[in-house]
Amino acid sequence: MQDFIFLIGGFFLAAALIPLIQTGQAPPLSTSVPTTLVLAAYAVCFFTLDLPMAGVAVTIQATLWLALVLQRLVTLAASEHIEQLEAEEDRLRLWQSAGPPFSALRDATPEELPRVLSRTGTTPD
User: Fold this and answer.
1) Is the Cβ–Cβ distance between 76 and 28 less than 8 Å?
2) Nearest alpha-carbon partner for 43 in 22, 64, 23
3) Share above pLDDT 90 across residues of the chain, in percent, rounded to a whole number
4) Using CB atoms within 10 A of its CB, is residue 28 exposed (0-12), middle (13-18) or buried (19+)?
5) Mean local confidence (pLDDT), 79-104
């Protein structure tokens, strides 16, 4: 009987996670990683206590929490990459819009740089 109760409760908790996964609003890693690990440990305990239905329900919950962990990691990596691209675009726009003497530096070949630098009054590092 306890196995069945854990099974029903586990399915309700798992169903409650589905909207969170669908919206892409994963909780912080400081919440989702420990929850995933604890649920995985619970699943092992339920299986070893001869409560297989509860073990299956908790395994499903742990898997959904793992999906939230992965979703958060992908979101963090993508946002970091977007920030880097935006910063690079800003630097490029600034460089392209710079007037003299920077336009001369922008258009100079590596061989011409010392001459252009001396002409603009700028010294190389």
Assistant:
1) no
2) 64
3) 37
4) exposed
5) 70
CA–CA distance, 44 with 59 (Å, rounded to integer): 9
From the list 56, 28, 29, 25, the residue with the least C-alpha distance to 40 is 56
Q: Is the pLDDT of residue 115 over 70?
A: yes
* pLDDT score for 100: 56
DSSP SS3 for 45 = helix
Please tell me whether the peptide bond between 28 and the residue prior to it is cis, using omega within 30 degrees of 0.
Answer: no
Q: Give per-residue burial for 57-67: e unless 16+ CB within 10 Å, then b.
A: bbbbbbebbbb
* pLDDT classification of 88: cutoffs 50, 70, 90: confident
Q: Residues 55, 103: contact at Cβ < 8 Å?
A: no
H or E stretch including 62? helix 52-97
Residue 54 has which token pair?
Answer: 């509860």
Higher pLDDT, 14 or 48: 48
Domain segments of the chain: what residues? Answer: 2-120
